[in-house]
Amino acid sequence: MGSTQPEFKNPATTSLLELVKSRRTYYGLKAESPIADDAIEQIVRDSVLHVPSSFNTQTSRVVLLLKEEHQKVWDIAINAMEGLVAAGVVPKDQFESSTKPKLNAFRAAYGTVLFFVDFESLAPIKEKFAIYADKFDPFATESNAMSQYLVWVALQSEGFGANLQHYSPLIDEQIAKTWNIPASWKLDAQLVFGTPTSEPGEKAFAPIEDRFKVFGK
């Protein structure tokens, strides 16, 4: 007999898993929003407040940038890459044909969420639990990744498309100067979002049998 779908106690579980399944990377985005800015802010705010962290250290720091403020991020990235071209680090033809169009595509979106980690705030707990001291930085990064994922899924649920970028440390200094970011905040990722203008690519999966095991069933 074929397998049957299990029944969940809470119907919201099915909805949650469907959102997880539907989350994709969208590169074709435009500067329009299907929801009010206050709703976007609530999604990001709730992720900061409620995503768990090891020992409740609460090390994630997040900045939401919309419209013209969002565009500044990608102007910074374009200028930084142009500097690398001028220095001979990046070939000009590669920048013009590939990198610059990609950065302009990010700029054409509606917003960017900047995700930071405040590693310096971990000093007291590293001292208190010295045996785990080398683990707290990775724990903080993992907590930050959970925030990134939650915001991504929630934004897509509301009609946005999004893609996650990592342009650190190339843009870090100018980001900090532009928005007066505390020195202890270390930029980890940039989530670009907007209304989709194209479909995402096909999503391939490695065999689940090679990645998942169950014991005791």
UniProtKB/TrEMBL annotation:
SUPFAM superfamilies per UniProt: FMN-dependent nitroreductase-like (SSF55469)
InterPro entries: Frm2/Hbn1, Nitroreductase, Nitroreductase-like
Single GO cellular component term: nucleus
Lineage: superkingdom: Eukaryota
Gene Ontology BP terms: cellular response to oxidative stress
Main location: cytoplasm
Assigned keywords, A-Z: Cytoplasm, Nucleus, Oxidoreductase
One Pfam family, short name: Nitroreductase
An example molecular function term from Gene Ontology annotations: oxidoreductase activity
Family to which the UniProt record says this protein belongs: Belongs to the nitroreductase family.
Protein name: Nitroreductase domain-containing protein
